[in-house]
Amino acid sequence: MKTVSLGASRPSTVNFRMPTRDNLVPIRVDLEVDGQRYRDAFTWNPRDPDSEIISFAKRTAKDLKLPANFVPQMLQSIQGQLAEFRSYEGQEMQIKEKIVPLKIDLRVNNTVIRDQFLWDIGNLDSDPEEFARTLCDDLNITDPEVGPAIAVSIREQLYEIASQSVSVMREKQLSKKGRRAPEFSSNSKAVNNAVDLFKYFGSKGSVIRKRKEWYLYEPVVDVVANEEDGKEEPPNNSSRPKKRAEEEKVASLQSL
């Protein structure tokens, strides 16, 4: 099998966009009004008119029987996130690495899933939703809410990487004009996870999973019983798909 180097790629400059098949924006809403809390995560087409957002907010409040005060706050939250996304459009971003590590660490209802994998941000035909469906099938996850949550988490990390790339280009442009560019740093969980994994792999990493690296990629799925919902740590009843284990074994043997 062909080895793909993580350290040999040259930086490329492109116009800002989500590195996926569609240019959908990950939206996360967390509101509390009059003692009631509404939390949700979904994707939104930035080309949709504001009237669609208004209709969505009103319909959501009606369906969930939320107070009317939720509607303006939901509108403000969604419109603010879309405005931030649109502020990046038309600007240049620099992609230093085509292959980036992503990490999933989610709890949805009674399902806890942890996994990490490599993602090609140079592939603009990638589909986080399709990846999430396949992952759930491989792990025998039947809760229909887990797949969408995984897809949104992937999109959030890709969006973070893309937006931080725009910030890097801005700083470089300032430095070219004779100003001292501030040091680029991020407290983002997605970016810090990527940095930590690159430190492990070094400058000549490979996307082929060697035997000694299996533990880095092995997905973990925990099922939390209802009576244990209040505990911080879920029980250790992890499962690993047999199909994925066999594929990794073959890949490892071919890379030795």
From TrEMBL:
It is found in: Nucleus. The keyword Transferase does not apply. Keywords: Nucleus, Transcription, Transcription regulation. Its main location: nucleus. GO terms for biological process: chromatin remodeling. InterPro entries: SNF5 (IPR006939). Residues 225-256 are annotated as: Disordered. GO terms for cellular component: nuclear chromosome. Pfam families: SNF5. Belongs to the SNF5 family. This is Chromatin structure-remodeling complex protein BSH. It comes from Panicum hallii.
